[in-house]
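ok, trying the design again with the full structure, not the truncated one.
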């Protein structure tokens, strides 16, 4: 994509620190990554409910939901996945700058794309959470039957089947969602979101 040469960023009159003071929290992005079926959306929405109940302002950016709107024009080629994550990272950054705790649930299979997300959001605001769940367990939970369809050849470029997943090398948190309960994971996530 070409960068526009006639666009100049505009500064507002309300500083990020003022927004955070108003909300009584620091904005950040908790980025959930892992295979389809590893529990990204489940944990993101459960954490949203837990934080909301505690009086925290938060929002979930879910990969499937963004593909119905903001990213509806994108497929699943490597270039389209990259653009999908670029857009998501830009939105997540805006939420963090508004003082919101943004919970972003995206497979985001490639390390280079996750590094791009880190650069867009800002390393000080991004908390990467890797949902470490074996492929077999993800397939066993496959309520959408995506793995079955991918193995039958009906879905091309499906992560874990016909497209690679590169686990993070140094995430802030690793959750073994096959063996840890949702409650155990949530406790660790609440601690991370308070840091």
């Amino acid at each position: 994509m070409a960068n526009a040469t006639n666009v100049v960023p505009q500064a507002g009159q309300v500083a990020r620190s003022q927004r955070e003071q108003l909300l009584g929290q620091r904005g950040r992005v908790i980025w959930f990554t892992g295979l389809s079926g590893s529990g990204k959306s489940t944990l993101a929405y459960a954490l949203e409910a837990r934080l909301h109940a505690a009086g925290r302002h938060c929002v979930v950016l879910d990969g499937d939901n963004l593909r119905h709107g903001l990213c509806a024009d994108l497929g699943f080629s490597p270039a389209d996945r990259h653009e999908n994550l670029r857009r998501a990272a830009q939105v997540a950054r805006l939420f963090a700058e508004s003082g919101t705790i943004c919970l972003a649930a995206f497979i985001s299979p490639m390390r280079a794309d996750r590094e791009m997300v880190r650069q867009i959001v800002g390393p000080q605001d991004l908390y990467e959470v890797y949902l470490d769940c074996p492929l077999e367990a993800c397939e066993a939970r496959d309520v959408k039957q995506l793995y079955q369809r991918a193995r039958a050849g009906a879905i091309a470029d499906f992560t874990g089947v016909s497209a690679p997943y590169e686990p993070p090398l140094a995430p802030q948190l690793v959750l073994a969602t096959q063996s840890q309960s949702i409650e155990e994971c949530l406790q660790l996530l609440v601690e991370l979101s308070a840091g």
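Keeping the full-length input from now on. DSSP finds eight helices and five strands in the chain.
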